[in-house]
């Protein structure tokens, strides 16, 4: 996980010029719009990262459970699908929040 931090920081720093605005926009709430856009981007990025990690861990746990007790495979599969749906709903909720933030720009 720590090996990905420098590449993440490099990506964020490389994208900063894309978020730059003209001087005329800065006097009309440009900073506020930029911070809203940054918040929306960070919201969906963190939600996607957390959702991906949670789905991976759920799948690992389901595979280990099925390997230990193959007879319980159907029950574990049903619980896995339910857990994945709940995890994905949280990511979709973050997407809706980021869209509502973008709507304020």
Question: What is the C-alpha radius of gyration, as a whole number of Å?
Answer: 20 Å
Overall residue-averaged pLDDT value: 83
First CA to last CA: what distance?
33 Å
Strand segment tally: 0
Beta percentage is under 5%
What's the number of helices? 3
CATH superfamily of the domain at 30-102: F1F0 ATP synthase subunit C
Based on secondary structure, the structural category is: mainly alpha
Q: Give the helix proportion (percent range).
A: over 70%
Q: Order of helices and strands, N to C?
A: HHH
Q: Helix and strand layout, with pairings?
A:
Blueprint: H1 5-15, H2 23-68, H3 73-102
How would you characterize the overall build of this protein?
- This protein has 105 residues and is mainly α.
- The radius of gyration is 20 Å and the shape is elongated.
- The chain has helices at 5-15, 23-68, 73-102.
- It has a domain at 30-102: F1F0 ATP synthase subunit C (F1FO ATP Synthase, Up-down Bundle), CATH 1.20.20.
- Helix 2 runs antiparallel to helix 3.
- The longest helix is centred in the middle third of the chain and has 46 residues, at 23-68.
- It is built from 3 helices and no strands.
Give a quick precis of the structure.
83% of the residues lie in helices and 0% in strands. With 105 residues, it is an all-alpha fold. The radius of gyration is 20 Å and the shape is elongated.
List keywords for this structure.
single chain, mainly alpha, F1FO ATP Synthase, elongated
